[in-house]
Specification:
Distance between the termini: 74 Å
Shape: extended
Number of helices: 22
Largest sheet: 5 strands, antiparallel
Radius of gyration: 36 Å
Strand order of the largest sheet: 1-5-4-3-2
């Protein structure tokens, strides 16, 4: 055992023999038994159960009590302690007034001053906990929370709830807002996302988040605001709202890009606020297009059957219990059935996948329930239904995978959109081996999905080209299209180099050279003799030439294809 090593609570601590261990320090320490005898190689603290090496001297034990527990052994007479740490703490907490020495011995029982560093640190941590974990302000009044804080530091007194609502949380908001604004001010470009939603209390909210890459190439994401929005959600009102957000957070000069869903009012708001590019959330787009496929009549009828079955098991405790029994008999996973939600992406697929997993158990259970005159109105899954379900799951699973991939927050995802579009359209290509229903689903999906991003197609291709994972642009059909994309990138790079707005940063190195020009090189005798025969020195390349050279090097080609 090492010094101060914490010991598990299941071993009993025995008091030191009073005849040989007379120091006051033994009121706080004891020994474990080993082989039926006291193990005196280590003294065990009765408060923290730390093991302290003991070799006849009690100095290190007294030091432990003073540093770890604030107990000065040299003070007045001390109370006796039980070998049970819980009883020891109870003795300390119950002692009041009658024994004045306890307050002097245990400084941890002396209340912390509200303005002390320790007290302020704990208060700050509680405020952070409330905000970070979205806790109610009333948590500071809960008995369990009070007990937790008391165990962690008995000296600390939790401020009243009103202190957090009126002082601490507003101060934390101001502090964090200042840090976020400083981070945003250092960003070259910022993207913001906007979404409207309704709470369980039917209050209408709008949430705005920002995203940018800092100077260390780290992705930074902030929730700028979530506010009640009671005005009509028209495109004009929302465009004013967006401009106000940019003004409040000083984003006007960042030329913010905008990401929203496909709602018409959001599209009008982006145009009204003059935010470009305006990207429509691809995960939302995938959900809309998949809903088109699920509205095929045969599939829609199958989903109605599945919902009725799931609803029956969700509402009937007896049916749910019977399902668990059958699952155990068939050795199936003890999974609950899932009900889909219109606004929850891929939930219809999740519902169908779970029913397919538990299909045998559900079929047997419904038969049992019907035989007992329960669930007479439950639909029966036909052979056609059972044949169709795995085909639908196979068709829609890539959409679920793509949604998860595109919902990543730690890295930008715009470069993945074009490859995802190409991959999904390829997956939904007609196939002669498809069931007629699957062919119809594919056709509905392609009709809706294929035209969603034509308005910004070139931009998405360039974003993919600048992602090293997709720089070969394999998802495009021909080399001419790929070369056209890189021609556009080269033109943009050349424009950045020659644009007066970027002149200061792009030519900083040249200006530094002009400030301290190198002296002309002295010509050698060979230069003087063979000057007209020697090769001329390389001329300085133009911005376009440098841009073409860098782009070709990035593509991994020795020569430019243009």
């Amino acid at each position: 055992m090492e010094g101060n090593e914490s010991i598990s609570n299941d071993k009993e601590i025995f008091n030191a023999p009073k005849k040989t261990h007379k120091s006051n320090v033994w009121q706080y320490f004891g020994f474990f038994k080993r082989g039926g005898q006291l193990d005196k190689t280590h003294a065990i603290c009765k408060q923290c159960r730390g093991a302290i090496k003991y070799v006849s001297s009690t100095t290190n034990l007294a030091t432990h009590m003073k540093r770890r527990h604030g107990v000065d052994i040299s003070a007045a007479a001390t109370p006796s302690f039980s070998s049970d740490p819980a009883e020891t703490r109870a003795t300390l907490s119950s002692s009041k007034g009658g024994d004045r020495s306890i307050a002097s011995l245990f400084r941890q029982n002396t209340p912390l001053a509200a303005n002390s560093a320790r007290s302020q640190a704990i208060t700050d941590a509680i405020a952070y906990f409330i905000c970070k974990d979205i806790q109610s302000y009333s948590v500071v009044e809960n008995e369990g929370f009070k007990e937790l804080v008391h165990i962690l530091d008995p000296r600390y007194k939790i401020p009243q709830r009103a202190f957090f609502t009126d002082t601490q949380i507003p101060a934390l908001y101001i502090k964090v807002k200042k840090e976020v604004m400083e981070s945003l001010s250092n960003a070259k470009r910022v993207a913001i996302t906007v979404d409207g939603w309704t709470s369980c209390a039917t209050h209408s909210y709008i949430t705005v988040t920002s995203h940018h890459i800092d100077n260390e190439w780290n992705m930074k994401n902030y929730v700028l605001q979530t506010r009640i929005y009671n005005e009509a959600h028209t495109g004009q009102n929302l465009s004013v709202f967006l401009r106000d957000v940019c003004c409040e957070w000083k984003l006007e000069d960042k030329k913010p890009a905008l990401v929203t869903d496909n709602a018409r009012n959001m599209l009008l708001a982006g145009a009204g606020a003059d935010m470009e590019p305006h990207i429509r959330c691809i995960a939302h787009t995938l959900n809309l297009s998949s809903q088109k496929a699920l509205k095929v009549e045969t599939v829609s009828a199958l989903l109605v059957k599945i919902r009725k079955l799931v609803t029956f098991f969700h509402k009937s405790p007896k049916a749910c219990g019977a399902l668990h029994e059958v699952q155990a008999q068939l050795k199936l996973k003890d999974h609950k059935l899932i009900h889909d939600v219109t606004t929850r992406w891929n939930s219809s697929l999740d519902m169908m996948e779970r029913l397919w997993e538990q299909q045998a158990a559900v079929t047997l259970t419904t038969r049992k329930m019907k035989s007992r005159s329960r669930g007479e109105n439950l639909p029966d899954l036909t052979e056609e239904d059972i044949t169709l379900m795995p085909e639908i799951i196979k068709l829609l699973t890539p959409l679920k995978t793509a949604t998860k991939c595109l919902s990543e927050e730690k890295t930008p995802t715009i470069s993945i959109i074009a490859p995802t579009l190409a991959k999904l359209l390829e997956h939904f290509d007609p196939d002669d081996s498809d069931l007629p229903v699957i062919s119809e689903m594919k056709d509905k999906f392609r009709q809706d999905f294929s035209t969603r991003y034509t308005y910004i197609q070139d931009f998405l291709w360039k974003a993919s080209a600048l992602d090293p994972r997709f720089k070969a642009l394999e998802f495009l059909d021909d080399d001419h299209t790929r070369d056209t994309v890189y021609l556009g990138i080269t033109a943009e790079v050349e424009n950045m180099a020659t644009n007066p707005e970027n002149e200061q940063s792009s030519h900083r190195e040249e200006e530094d050279e002009d400030d301290d020009p190198e002296p002309p090189m002295k010509k050698s005798a060979l230069d003087l003799m063979f000057g007209s025969f020697s090769s001329p020195r390389a001329q300085k390349k133009s911005s376009r030439e440098r841009a073409k050279e860098e782009t070709a090097k990035y593509r991994g080609r020795v020569r430019s294809a243009w």
